[in-house]
Each structure stands twice: as structure tokens, then as C-alpha cells.
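On clarity, I found the account of how folds are encoded harder to follow than it need be. For illustration, here is how one protein appears when written out as sequence plus C-alpha cells:

:::
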Amino acid sequence: MSDPATGVTDIAELSARLEATGYLAAEPLATAMFLGIRMRQPILLEGEPGVGKTEAAKALAAALDTRLVRLQCYEGLTAAEALYEWNYPRQLLAIRLAEARGEVLHDADLFGAEYLLPRPLLQAIQHPGPRPAVLLIDEVDRGDDEFEAFLLEVLAESAVTIPELGTQRAALPPVAVLTSNRTRDLHDALKRRCLYHWIGYPDTGRVAAIIRRRVPDAADFLAERVAGAVERLRGLDLQKPPGIAEAISWVTALHVLGLDGFDAAAAEQTLGAVLKYQEDQDTVRAVGLAKVVGGG
């Protein structure tokens, strides 16, 4: 049966829609997304950086043909910064205009909807449809405990209270996707509210398929060769093992430079596209770039 809000019938249909956007979702991930849509529960995606967590939310919004609202979390993020703020310059202008006209303004005149600047959480709640927005709460593990507790309440109710305007309740509760790199453990209360899925590094064949989708103009053999090289890099003792994003960047760099081969010299020339620490580059050079690229 089709979901009335999004029109998604089953997991296979959702997978096909995601694939049409260029995102190849493994069946467990597509299942988690489908359940999040149908059960009206947030989805918590955890995994190493670069495995496609953020891209999954972007692809889901595209697959549902709806708006993506992104809240990037960081240390010190407050509820006010995530929810709304008042347009103080516009309020000040209104006060000055009223003074010039000899009018008297009351609080209700200055704290109306026309002076409100919605931030991501309120934008997602106020989204008019016709389909619910996809609310991406990115790197939620970077926020603090107080913000996490506030977020739990917002996700549970799909509503917020603005003292001057009252409770703002979502006509279409957003499809919430939370991502975490596990820089810290999230509280059990938040995890209980969410459906959970761990996105691991995909196998070489899937990485190659993803690269072909994302860099269609590159030579076909590069996808296979780079996917294999990235797999070998992950077997080394690196500070930041490369993920899918780095594999795509590597192939893109090779293609932009017009390199028609993938050997140690080509890898050396484009190593900055895949390894972002000097120590990691030194480690790879010590092992031997020819060994990493697999010859040829």
C-alpha cells in the first residue's frame, strides 16, 4: 500500500527512486529509510566519515521530490540558533518609522510572523508540502547534551512553542535523518526514539558502481582500479582511511587531469584527492604506491 504522504509503496520502489538520483542504497539502508517514512520515526545513520550518510539524506529528499532542510550541528549550537530568531534590523526600522509617524507600537506589533526568521528546525516544521520535508540533522554527535535533549522533544512532537506566537505544529511531520560519526556516544533516550542503521564501507564492486554513477565521464577501468586501491588503503594504518567521497574525488581528479592510466605516477600526482593528512601520504609512500594501485 502506498504511503499517503510520500507515495512510496515498498522498499523496491524506494530503492529504484534512490538509484534514479544516482545513490545506490544497499537493501538494509533502503529498508531503514522505508521504515522511517512509514513508521514516522527519525532515522539515525552512523558510520565512518565519507561512507555516504549525508548523501543518503540528500538522495532521499530527491527521491521523494521534496525539500531538504539541513541543520549542521557543531559544539555550542543552541536551540535558538536551530529554531528561529527575530529580524532585529527590520524591527528597529519599524520602530523608527512608527516614531516618525507619531504612532505607538506594542510588543504584538513587533513580534509577529512577518518578523520571524525560521532556522532549519522551524523551516522543516512549517514546510507546507505537498510532501513532508526531509530534515537532515547532520553530525548530531557534535552537539552538546542540552541540545540533544531539546532535539529529542522536537522530534517527538514535530512541534515547537514560540512564546510570542504560540505552538507551531507540523501539518506534515518531516522525515528526519540524523547522522553521526560517533565522536561521542549519543544518549539512549535519543537512540530509542530513532530507527538505527550503521553504514559501513561498501565492498569494492559497490564502490566501483557508485563511482561510475557519480563520475560517468571517467574511463570505465578507473572505477574498478580506484575502488581496489581505496580498499587497499583502508588496510593500512592511516589517520583517516578514505571513504566513498574520497574515491569519487580521486577518480574525478584523474579524469580532470586527462590521465589515461592508473599507475604509481598518476597516484602520486593525485594523492591529495584521497589522503588528507601528510602522515598518511608518507605512510602510503613508504608502503609503495605501485603496491597500492595494484600495478599497471
Q: What stands out?
A: Residues 220-234 form the longest helix (15 residues).
